[in-house]
């Protein structure tokens, strides 16, 4: 399935969404009327998964967030400490600030699901420590603001060199410690008590979907209450998949999705079908997922 190359799929996804208005109606493909019933049942589902006290202590990641519809109407009212947004369209993320209108709107990541850096390595990877050829200011050993004495090795020169070496070592140690602290803080900011994924899995191949979930589960806060929530269209009947030949997207059956969850090392701890959606739309399922121990 999804015989279209990943890069082409990503561009098709981006191209489609870049034509949509940065409004709730645009986010819902012209079905703004489903927003209240969608949010109401999501709220009930989430309430059964986590106590509010837990949510108040942790961040949530809103995947495929667009302008932040789910964040504004569901995740922030549910009490999460902060809601971070992940979306592939920069224009939507820019619009989210005014639309959400909350100081609890957290980080905004512009990325596709398949490429998202859950670990934050692209930001928090430490630069290499100096190899002794440069000081903390990046200059050469001589003439870089540190007096290292003469090369001839007088006692005063030796003392000066020792002092300079000590200063350099202290500066290097301080710089490394500061970088390590910033890395730890960034790593902490990429741990979530909930990862909410709604109506955005259709552009992932099976392989990319399993890989995404494997990386996502490692970004959960270490707690039995942490959860990944998937809310998406499903197929009914005998078909497992339905591909859209025009844009390469795919809708999957309930059973097929469950097999992919299991392949990623996730178990379904709660599932519920959304009710009250307009006739003629795909059925919608909500899944709560925990890592298999």
Main sheet summary: 7 strands, mixed
Q: How helix-rich are the residues, as a percent range?
A: 25-40%
Helices, by number, come to 10
SSE succession: HHHHEHEHEHHEHEEEHEE
Which strands sit side by side, in order, in the main sheet?
3-2-1-4-5-9-8
What is the count of β-strands?
A: 9
N-to-C terminal Cα separation, in Å? Answer: 30 Å
Radius of gyration: 25 Å
The proportion of residues in beta strands is 15-25%
Low-confidence stretches: 123-156, 177-185
Approximate shape: globular
How would you state the average pLDDT, rounded?
A: 81
Textual characterization of the structure:
This protein is an alpha/beta fold. The chain contains ten helices and nine strands. The strands form two sheets. Strands 3-2-1-4-5-9-8 form a seven-stranded mixed β-sheet, sandwiched between helices. Strand 1, helix 5 and strand 2 form a beta-alpha-beta unit. Helix 3 packs across helix 5. It is globular, with a radius of gyration of 25 Å. The two termini are 30 Å apart.
